[in-house]
Predict the 3D structure of the following.
Amino acid sequence: MKILQNVKIKIRAAQKSDDILLLNWSNDPLVRKNSFKSERITLSEHQAWLSSRLNDKSHCRIYICETVDGIPIGQTRFEKKKLTWEIDYSIDNSFRGNHLSERMLKISLEKVEKEFPYASFLGYVKKENVASLNIFRNLSFTLESKGDFFICRSI
């Protein structure tokens, strides 16, 4: 199901009822390949993890990105570690190749920045994940090489 690049997207806070959707995205083969922990995630592990994140509003934001018609596209997650918000995102396999990830991440960053105006952001990306590296570059992040991955920092 490919869609046009100019489709309007919106974000909403993730809820407990999104657990299966988020687990399916997390266990997508490409997501596991690009993750620093490549093992499949079990339902019980995921539900415990999601519950802890949703209950930690001072350190975590998880957003579901959707079309304006409510079709889920992907997720963005921000976890506060000391003074920096670490970024994680993924897009549904059906929507890849439509240049939506960058827009999805940009909208999500803007939402977190409104709530935390002086926030700094950090992403960790494997060197072979060229698509994510390009997205961070396009969003004006600096890239610092660290062995087999890059640290992407907001400016």
Q: What stands out?
A: The domain at 9-153 is CATH 3.40.630.30 (Aminopeptidase). Helices lie at 19-26, 29-34, 43-54, 100-115, 130-138.
